[in-house]
Amino acid sequence: MPWSNQSGGGGPWGQRGGSGGGKSPWGSGGPQGNGNPPDLEDILRRGQDRLKDFIPGGGSMGGKGIILIVLGAIAIWLLTGFYTVRPNEVGINMIFGKYSSSSGEGLRYNYPYPIGRVIKPDVTRQQRVEVGYRSTATGQGRPRDVIEESLMLTADENIVDIDFDAVWQINPARPQDYVFNLQNPDGTIKSVAESAMREVIGRRNIQAILTTEQASIATEVRQIMQEALDAYGAGVLINVVQLQAARPPSEVQQAFFDVNAAQQDAVRVQNEASAYASRIVPEARGEAARTVQQAEAYREQSVADATGQAARFSQVYEEYRKAPDVSRERIFLETMERVFGSVDKIIVDQNGQGVVPFLPLTQGQSQPPQSQNNTNQGATR
């Protein structure tokens, strides 16, 4: 119940200075019963008495016991130097803050703290640096564009908006370089990546950047980044550079697309013309070659015929000079043979006796008389 400051109360601990039950928070009237604070020397003396109870011999072996305690403490301290390195880690051993060695996976040992220290970086974890944009924390939704990083100048004095990633990891062969030489790994790698990309973009035209050379750009940027980081002694491996977007600035994007469409139409028309020329020109060349060959063949034939006719005429002329009458008669007969050889002939008697029947000799030779056939059959029998 609530205490009362009446006679016999004396506050929550009773009557001060009373003989019966006046108490303070430390007991009856304080540690000594007079309301004074506790005696520190008494507390220390009691602590020493309790420590003697734990020492072997109850204090009779004072010096040896202290030595055993110190040796035990040293042994426990030395045992704290054992550590385990996981398969994805490399142990960086330091002594008084200076690098001493690296250790692989398994149970290892180094001097305990504060003499030694061990840092175990993860050398297999793939880390990503975003340049030109920032993705959302959940990975969903539209990323935020960082204009001061993404806008770059091309070789033909155009501006292109580039967003890309650089995927990196700690070099397992030189993890100490990463630990001691890089104070801000993400910031350093992002700066090197942006610088390398601006260098590569500055050597190319915008049309090639947006269409055909994105793979070569990523490869060249990765190579430049790796060379720069190796020169810094960063202890970092650049695994891949991925272009997320390559586009003209949003302010001129529509105009650029119109120009690009017009250029593509021009290229298409040129390709169609080239295809037509590739089809027509060989055909025209083949037709010309065929005409030339026909003309050459006709020329050779005509020359050969003329040469043969001239030779025949020369031979006939020589025979004519030897016997003019005979040659003239022969020429006349050969001419008549050529003229009347292929026409039907009717002979008219000049004495007026009428038409004389004409039996072609060729017809008589083609069909032998019946009597001759019978004679031949009888002879065969």
Task: Give the tags.
381 residues; alpha+beta; four-stranded antiparallel beta sheet; 11 helices; 13 strands; 17% strand; rod-shaped; disordered C terminus
Report on this model:
With 381 residues, the protein is of the alpha+beta class. 50% of the residues lie in helices and 17% in strands. Among the domains are: 33 residues, no CATH class; 37 residues, no CATH class; 40 residues, no CATH class; 122 residues, Band 7 domain (Tetrahydropterin Synthase, Chain A, 2-Layer Sandwich). Helix 5 packs across helix 7. The termini are far apart.
At the third CATH level, what is the topology name of the domain at 127-248?
A: Tetrahydropterin Synthase, Chain A
Number of helices: 11
Helix content: 40-55%
Number of strands: 13
Enumerate the spans where pLDDT stays under 50 for 5 or more consecutive residues.
1-34, 371-381
Q: Give the mean pLDDT.
A: 79
How much beta, percentage-wise?
15-25%
Distance between the termini: 173 Å
Second-tier CATH architecture of the domain at 127-248: 2-Layer Sandwich
> What radius of gyration results from the CA coordinates?
61 Å
CATH superfamily of the domain at 127-248: Band 7 domain
